[in-house]
Every structure is written in C-alpha cells, then in structure tokens.
Amino acid sequence: MKELLRTNDITAIAFAKALLDGEGIDCFEMDVNMSVLEGGIGILPRRLMVRQADLFQARAIMRDNGIEYEGRG
Fold first, then answer.
1. Looking at the 3D structure of the chain, how many domains does it have?
2. What pLDDT, in 10s, does the model give residues 11-36?
C-alpha cells in the first residue's frame, strides 16, 4: 500500500474515496481512530492508501478533480 493522500480535511477524504470507488480503485483509510488520542479536535491527519499498481491512476484522478495529494509515497 502506498500513501495517496494525507489531510485533516475529512470531506476531502470522503470525496477522494468516492472518486476512487467510482473508478474501481480500492483504497483504505488509515488513522481514523486517532481522534481518541487527540480529543476529537482534528489536528492529526488521516491517510488514504492505495495499492502500488493503482497509485499512478489514483494520483491522476486526484489531480483531475482538484485534490492536491500530500502523500509521501
């Protein structure tokens, strides 16, 4: 799995997941339960992961829909 998106914006994560799902690309959201540690204030970013084979296409989908990815992978 490679990191596609890292953001604090939960609406960007939801939009990205919907776009990827529409294109048949499986993704996995990580760090969802970190709010337990941070107290629910949203300071810790969530990560959206995709398979290595889907990374290029997933980044193109993000770019085409105006989502800037902050991934490191």
1. 1
2. 999 999 999 999 999 999 998 887 66
